[in-house]
Amino acid sequence: MKEIEKIKRLHKISTVLLTQKKPKKVLQAIVKNAAEFFSANASSILLFDEKREYLTIAYSYNLSREYVKVVKVRKDEEIAGKVACSQKAVIIRDLVKRFKSKGDQFSVSWFKKEKLVSAVDAPVVLGKTSLGCLNLYYRRNYVFRKQDLEELKIFCDFSAIAIHNASLIKRIENQLREKIALEHIGIALTSTLKIGDVLKMFVSTAVEFTNTEKGSILLIDEKEKKIQKAYNYSKKGNKLETYKSTARLHSGFSRRVLTKGKPVVIHDIAKTKNVNPVALRKKRKAVLAVPVMMKKKIIAILYVDSSKPREFSKSEIAQVAILANQAAVAIENARLYTQVEQKIRDISISYKISQTLISTLDLDTLLSKILNEIKSSFGYLNAAILLVDEKTSNLHIKAAKGYPEKIMKIKLKIGADGITGYAAAKGKTCYVPDVSKDKRYVLGIPDAKSEVAIPLKIGNRIIGVLDVESNEYDAFDEWEIKLLSSIAAQIANAIEKSRLYEETKMLSLTDPLTGLPNRRYFDMMIDAELRRSERYNRPFALLLIDLDNFKKYNDRNGHLAGDKVLVEYAKVMKSSIRDIDFICRYGGDEFIAVLPETDELFARAVAERIRKNAEKEGKKSKISLSIGIALYPLDGDDKTHLVMISDKACYRAKKGGGNCVRVVTDRM
Q1: Separation CA 450–CA 623 (nearest Å)
Q2: Identical fold at 192-336 and 359-497?
Q3: Which helix (H) or strand (E) holds 151?
């Protein structure tokens, strides 16, 4: 009857074990029921690790936590290892004596601490595969009978089944969870059309699935074997950032991914041949590289990095591969959306720039508006337009946004200074993804990370450079550079148009014979001087200058000789006045000079200097000057009246024989 009762108990225990679904609960039930059924003081179950190299205590009953932590047995070693491999139970009647004979004082000390006297180690086997062993410990001498060993074998067999069932259930649950998670991630990936959001979600999820620290992704052109863009992700910072990749698509494991079109695992980079030195400097120890494929073409390569040498399980590789398939669709959708967005932005920015170009002919206003549009539309750190100084072969900043005032005065030698100097010398666009690694770079703003310089051309002539900087590495996409190049062409045309306008404007205000300002320019200038003098209550003098005997000289020597005299006398008069003074050809052989901040005494002195210098010049031609003076506000406070007074004074000078200076009424 006693044996029948034990069999019933065994059946009841097996039912309890087999109905448990969680591995932890199964192991807990095994050790507790084993101790109770076989009247043991303590028990433990040791299971193999994933690689089946070591046995460790998976669960224990009535043993100290300290003891459980230190037990680690290699297969085929110690009693537990041999039991698990031989699949035969071992009875140890005296633990201390047995291990002392083996010279294992470490185990002896622990047995004494735990007060363990005898034990039995039995294999836990599923089919022909050993899962580990079940240990029963006694704090007394205990002798196992043959019947006990048979019952222990039965107990271990259904324990193995219970462990396997619980593991299977856990695996299925994990797979379902992974499948659900992947489905949710797949939905999330395809629900956003922003490439940055897609890539961050993809890389961060891959890092999470593989329990690694960092990840990166290269967007590539497989046909050209060219990296289009590179991104880094760190779990610590939870940020996706662009970077300049040093990956070698023609060699290394990137090439293996492109060649095979399958995931590549590097368990220990330090022990791998032909490794990129940068990978070692970045302290990458193990890498999983997975291709991201769309229509059998590799559009990206995902990397997850471990800071320690490690294996990547089949499950991890499979999960990331599934994730990569989902990401491929999302990346392609985001790319297409980005292309559409870019076209819309192109049209919008081009339209705004075009509207700016026709809004004004003033060059400073025009360039300022264009740079504002570029900076606000793209969000760049700063932007500048530099123009070529033909005399010095230098570049100087004509307009800028985002630069401190001190930078505005900088001058760059073409071909020698900076990335802009290089672009101007070569006449081609110069893009630097990382300015810290380019010797040509001239520091402007410390936050600058990447820069593009685009020459401004009129035909084959370089007139300047459009320069733009970003606070991100490798921030300029190919389409952005193309768009900026198009804008640069518009800027160049606008500058040339403005230059021609200014030249035309100056020609309309300049006497073509003498090169002095003309009467139209005088009308503009005198109005401004009148407003200034009235506002600040300051005097000025107006001199009307007429050439004596010019008509006779012209009739006698011809118009060409007369023109030559006019040119020479214009030079004499120009050189006889101050830089702040103004002189123009008023008409025929008449000239007008305006002398700001000048009273009558000083006006007479200047007029006499002009007359005397002209007298020296006219020794051969016998041409002298008659000069009439009008003073503001003494002789009048408007243009018409002042010109009339100076004309009357000049008439008095001529009537008095010429070659003299007069006012309307002598006040001296």
Answers
A1: 67
A2: yes
A3: helix 146-191
Question: Cα(492)–Cα(267) distance, rounded to whole angstroms?
Answer: 55
Tokens found for residue 122:
């039995």
Q: What is the CATH number assigned to the segment(s) 2-170?
A: 3.30.450.40
What residues have CB less than 8 Å from 341, skipping those under 6 apart?
none
Residue 34 and residue 399: Cα distance in Å, rounded?
A: 86
Q: How far apart are CA 377 and CA 363, in angstroms?
A: 21
Q: DSSP letter string over 222-290?
A: TTTTEEEEEEEEETTTTEEEE------TTSHHHHHHHHH-S-EEES-GGGSSS--HHHHHTT--EEEEE
The CATH topology of domain 359-497 is Beta-Lactamase (3.30.450)
Tell me whether strands 625-632 and 661-663 are parallel, antiparallel or unpaired.
parallel
Label residue 76 left, alpha or beta by phi (over 0 means left) and psi (-120 to 50 means alpha).
left
Rounded to whole angstroms, the Cα distance separating 226 from 293 reads 16
Please count the other Cβ atoms lying within 10 Å of the Cβ belonging to residue 339.
11
Q: What parts of the chain have a pLDDT lower than 50? A: 1, 180, 668
User: H helices within 476-517, ranges in order?
Assistant: 478-508
Percent of the chain with pLDDT over 70: 89
> Dmax of the chain from CA atoms?
162
Topology (CATH level 3) of domain 519-663 = Alpha-Beta Plaits (3.30.70)
Return the DSSP state at 436.
G
Collapse the DSSP code of 1 into the 3-class scheme (helix H, G, I; strand E, B; otherwise coil) and give the result: coil
What gap in Å lies between CA 170 and CA 193, rounded to an integer? 36
The backbone torsions φ and ψ at residue 223, rounded to the nearest 5 degrees and listed phi first, read -65, -45
Q: Domain residue spans in the chain?
A: 2-170, 192-336, 359-497, 519-663
* CA proximity to 19, closest of 6, 33, 7: 33
Q: What pLDDT was estimated at residue 612?
A: 94
CB 449 within 8 A of CB 470: yes
Q: What gap in Å lies between CA 122 and CA 151, rounded to an integer? A: 11
Calculate the alpha carbon distances from 56 to 50, 399, 625 in Å: 11, 73, 118
Confidence (pLDDT) at 141: 87
88-112 CB burial, b ≥16 within 10 A, e <16: ebbebeebbebbeeeeeeebbebbe
Cβ(595)–Cβ(581) under 8 Å? yes
Determine the Cα–Cα distance for residues 613 and 628; give it in Å rounded to an integer: 17
Report the C-alpha gap between 559 and 556 in whole angstroms.
9
Burial status of residue 184 (CB atoms within 10 A of its CB: 0-12, 13-18, 19 or more): exposed
What's residue 655's pLDDT?
92
pLDDT for position 668: 45
* 33-92: pLDDT as tens digits: 989 988 899 999 989 887 778 888 889 898 888 777 777 788 777 888 888 888 899 998
Q: For residues 408 and 578, give the distance between their C-alpha atoms in angstroms, rounded to a whole number.
A: 30
DSSP state of 517: B
Identify the residue whose tokens are 């705004």. Answer: 352
Task: Give tens-digit pLDDT for 170-186.
Answer: 775 665 555 545 555 55
In sequence order, the β-bridge partners of residue 44 are: 60, 135
Task: Provide the CATH number for the domain formed by 192-336 in this structure.
Answer: 3.30.450.40
Question: What are phi and psi for residue 192, nearest 5 degrees?
Answer: -115, 145
Please compute Rg for the chain using Cα positions.
48
- The Cα-based distances of 140 to 95, 115, 122, 467, 496 in angstroms read 11, 9, 19, 88, 105
Residue pair 218/227 in contact (Cβ under 8 Å)? The answer is yes
Q: How far apart are CA 30 and CA 43, in angstroms?
A: 9
In the numeric block, the tokens 């009762």 are attached to: 5
